Amino acid sequence: MKKILLILGFVLVFSSFVSSADWDITKGTPLEFDTVNGADNSLVKINSTHYINAYAGDGSDGFAVVLTVDGTTITKGTSYEFATIKGESHSLVQIDNTHYLNTYYGYVGNLGGFAVVLTVDGTTITKGTPLNFDLKASQNSLVKINSTHYINAYAGDGDDGFAVVLTVDGTTINKGTAFEFDTTYGKFNSLVQINNTHFLNTYSNTGGQAVILYVNDTTITNITSFEFDSGSNQYNSLIKIDNTHYLNLYQNTSVGYAVVLTIDGNTISKGTAFKFTDFVGSVISPVQINSTHYIISYTGLDGDGYTVVLNIDNTTITKNTNLEFDTNRAYSNSLVQINDSHYLNTYAGIDNHGYAVVLEVEVPPTDTCTYSGTGDWNILISDNCVITEDVDLGANTLLVNGTNGLLSIQAEVKANKIQFKPSVFDGTFKVSMKVGVGMLMGHI
Length: 444
Fold this sequence. Notes:
The protein contains no helices and 43 strands. It is mostly beta strands. The chain has 2 domains: 4-15 and 366-442, no CATH class; 23-361, Methylamine Dehydrogenase, Chain H, CATH 2.130.10.10. The strands form 10 sheets. Strands 2, 3, 33, 34 and 35 form a 5-stranded antiparallel sheet that branches. Strands 4, 5, 6, 7 and 8 form a 5-stranded antiparallel sheet that branches.
């Protein structure tokens, strides 16, 4: 058998690699961003350090604030009151780096559903002219179609289910004809994009419903609907896993459930619902960590704030250890990703004041010891790999990077070339090669 033996640096053990800590969550110090009221939060990432949050503030009026994050430390800009009489049930999406579209239930001459473009310059916020898109619109869920078109699902007249396409030009908003996708009841909407023309919405009817909506310019039609839960349904929160799978979080008779919905053409099916907590009292907010892990924030037992990472394997769901991030109160959670391991959550805390907190997830290191089967193979010395099975990289390269660890190749590894690039070398280095393994190229 052909062998290569490489010993680089030293073998180190890091406590962060302990598997029992994988997917555990810790928290930073919360920031009180509004000392009066901070409900109906809708948080959107501006860039890696800045985030805009729309919420119901003093008097349940509509406010927005820019939050700045440095590590786990949060600071805030000046809150801007964009709806001076009422502003609830917010749903905010990004148009571009400086403009954000928000739908909400408010009052401008009359009560109803409104949409407004918010402009951000640093931490300063201004607004365009609001559009009254319906005489009633609560439980809004807004999704971007493209740079000028947006679809909003909401509970309209009689709490029936409606959807409308909004068109944005600068800070000017126009609307298409609202489509009534459920003529009996349509609250607790959560909408995601399937592709450029199809959208999946989960909502509450006699049970938990899912509907596929088809959009052609500003015209909306109903493709198909599916009951995913026959019991009491509230607080739907839907997130895309891939083009055919979608994760929905919801409450059924105060219990928190998660279910994977599968779309095959115009057909919707479901996996087995997983109970992730015995009690949910408000909005659940999910964010994708990677294709198999999702972090959620929610209102748990006694109205306190909880967070947990869910594991997804096809349609099977399990969970990791949860964290009680606020022991007093946490309603109206809205969660976004900062980076792979840090997440920002806004919520209504004690006395319904507005709070924000950074949640940190113990993400396990990526295993570089196994070849993916395509492309170059980049092995990190710190992963302490022991390769015992033959691997053929074809025309690709075996790349060895980093310092402090041991790499032992005890099998036949064929590659076009092998490249060593330790940034700092301190220790011993030994290579023995047999003909046919490849050409050795590198530097130390």
